[in-house]
Design goal:
The chain is globular, with a radius of gyration of 23 Å. The chain is built from twelve helices and 17 strands. The strands form four sheets. Strands 1-9-8-5-4-2-3-16 form an eight-stranded mixed sheet, sandwiched between helices. With 422 residues, the chain is α/β, with parallel strands linked by helices. Helix 4 packs parallel to helix 5 and helix 9 packs across helix 12. It has two domains: 139 residues, Aspartate Aminotransferase, domain 1; 251 residues, Type I PLP-dependent aspartate aminotransferase-like (Major domain) (Aspartate Aminotransferase, domain 2), CATH 3.40.640.
Length: 422
């Protein structure tokens, strides 16, 4: 069969699907959802049919497209967001930009894939509090935590709300400390038109199935620094010598130990195998074309939630987006105020019973998580806002495949719960 006939059949299949019809009380409202159609499937099938199933030309194209979208020079695609963080941190240490064993200032309220790679790279996390306005790392707390051992500031743009990068970059410049942006939840977020991920020396991304754009699994590291790009490409793939000119003979490497050796099998450093496949990249190429429209829909849903739940402002705190910030809303955060006649547990239990999925605010206070609490990790200052979110916050879905009926169902369900208790 001609592959164009296969592609046409895929298009027909998606045209005739009613899988996204919402039935109140029966259809599940997921926190995250893989929002794709025939274009992604056809692109992936094209790679499969042509036997391009490992890292290849589509990975290069996706790296180029995404870097251009961010406004940075280089992109290195990998197999997950946590791998992206690990490679980014390792490259910063290998380059000498971040001293070995130095401290990394991080928000206490974040996800485990922020903290574990810091430890895996031989660095030391220092937990600081977040600000109430954005639920992101506080620039004032960063400055208070800086010591002679500080090697890096690691910013996390939580749930798509960009951190206050102007203030953070000011602190960075004042103390000459580089900034690493974890943007795993912030695809398309920006400040005054400048994309999250283009402020610091390096940024990392996740394209997990639930995120604003997806490759199923996958991630990327972006930077303007050619040294870091070289290291990233090498350690992504076993630590091998990279960028061998295809026109060269393959036996050109020579030193005191390897005489005229095959350059494809020269290993410069200890690396990993965390490559992205062309199948995954084929999804990413198509998803990127839709990202801005997806985010526009996410922002519309978030605004509808805010308007619909305004009546409960004495009990519920909605997300805040500072002026000039574009919040890409991976999720919609709700904070149950301490004076509410109900608890977070009560509300989320009710929502789950209505088929409305909820999530805690990532790992909450990571410093008290079992994996980290007995490691003697450093905490700078009090974590008051972090504790508040740990105890009272959760988030719900606002992915672009939710229709207005589903959004209104969420609002009505919260209305129903609160009206019973207030």
């Amino acid at each position: 069969m001609n592959k164009n006939k296969i592609f046409s059949a895929v298009e027909d299949y998606f045209k005739n699907q009613d899988s996204f019809e919402f039935v109140p009380g029966k259809s599940k409202i997921n926190v995250g959802f893989p929002c794709y159609d025939s274009s992604e499937v056809i692109s992936a099938l094209d790679s499969l049919i042509d036997l391009n199933i490992s890292q290849g030309k589509k990975v290069k194209q996706f790296e180029k497209d995404y870097s251009k979208y961010l406004g940075v020079k280089f992109g290195v695609a990998v197999n997950s967001g946590s791998s992206a963080n690990l490679l980014a941190l390792t490259s910063l240490v290998m380059s000498g930009i971040v001293p070995k064993g130095s401290e990394v200032i991080v928000p206490a309220a974040t996800f485990t894939t922020v903290i574990s790679p810091i430890l895996q790279a031989g660095l030391k996390p220092v937990f600081v509090d977040i600000e109430m306005d954005t639920y992101n790392i506080s620039s004032a707390c960063i400055e208070s935590a800086i010591s002679e051992n500080t090697g890096l500031i690691m910013v996390v743009h939580s749930l798509g709300n960009p951190a206050n990068m102007k203030e953070i970059m000011s602190v960075s410049e004042k103390f000459n400390i580089p900034v690493f942006e974890d943007c795993c939840e912030a695809h398309g977020a920006s400040i005054d038109g400048k994309k999250a991920g283009s402020f610091g020396i390096i940024s990392a991304w996740s394209f997990f199935v639930a995120h604003n754009m997806t490759t199923g699994e996958g991630g990327m590291v972006n930077t303007n620094d050619p040294r870091l790009q070289y290291i990233l490409r090498s350690i992504r793939e076993f630590g091998r010598l990279i960028d061998v000119d295809p026109s060269m003979e393959r036996f050109g490497y020579s030193d005191d130990y390897l005489k005229d050796y095959d350059e494809r099998y020269v290993f410069e450093s200890i690396g990993y195998n965390v490559r992205m496949t062309d199948i995954a990249a084929s999804l990413g190429i198509e998803q990127l074309k839709k990202l801005d429209s997806f985010n526009k829909r996410r922002a519309k849903i978030a605004n509808d939630y805010c308007v619909g739940l305004e009546k409960h402002k004495n009990y519920l705190r909605m997300p805040n987006t500072p002026k000039g910030h574009f919040h890409s809303f991976y999720g919609f955060t709700i904070l149950v105020n301490e004076n509410a006649p109900f608890t977070r547990k009560g509300l989320i239990t009710f929502l789950e019973s209505k088929n409305i999925e909820t999530r805690a605010f990532m790992g909450g206070n990571l410093s008290i998580q079992p994996a980290y609490r007995d490691l003697g990790l450093k905490v700078s200052g009090e974590l008051l806002t972090t504790e508040m979110l740990t105890n009272n916050a959760f988030f719900i879905g606002c992915h672009p495949f939710l229709n207005d009926v589903a959004v209104n169902y969420v609002i009505q369900s919260i209305d129903e719960y609160i009206s019973r208790l207030s």
